Automatic annotation (TrEMBL):
Keyword Lyase belongs to the record: no
Name this protein carries in UniProt: VOC family protein
Keywords assigned by UniProt, alphabetized: Metal-binding
Domain of life: Bacteria
Domain VOC: 7-146
Organism: Acidovorax benzenivorans
PANTHER family, per database record: METHYLMALONYL-COA EPIMERASE, METHYLMALONYL-COA EPIMERASE, MITOCHONDRIAL
InterPro entries the record matches: Glyas_Bleomycin-R_OHBP_Dase (IPR029068), MMCE/EMCE_epimerase (IPR051785), VOC_core (IPR037523)
Pfam families according to UniProt: Glyoxalase_4
Amino acid sequence: MSRHFGAIRQLGYVVHDIEAAMDYWSKTLGVGPWFYNPKVPIKNYVYKGEHYEPHNSVALANSGYVQVELIQTRNDVPSMYRDFLQAGRTGLQHVAYWTSDYDADLARLTAQGFKTVMSGEVGEKGRFVYFDTEYHPGTVIELSEVAGPKGRMFDLIRAESETWDGKTDPVRPFPDLSKI
């Protein structure tokens, strides 16, 4: 457990082929079911101080308490994911810590010297920020708000993983965040 952030809650992998990655993780590693969104609705996205409109596909599943995120960029919008790929890397790109007190945690971490590189939001109370903190080549730290619908979706994904039989519906659509 990190003294600064708490427990690591998510491992984020940047991949070239998200469908192949979901297939590998479910069939070979037994991780699933995957909740897949071919175009995540990211609002207020900022990278290095500039606003962009990214098109990222994301799949989420849990392995025990830890969530695995697969990310495939679908356009050439500047991002830490694109930087990771352009550096010739694939695989683990970030570790994420979750918070229900985003403003306080972000202020505390900023005061400790953490610098924001990329941020945005997915749903109400679903803000996220990536810091300029490579602790391993290419791998950075994300702080993710999970106080609203995004948090309820993450709870649902974890619950589904606990009862998944390893075969039935290995890939499922993201739930509608406006309805949970």
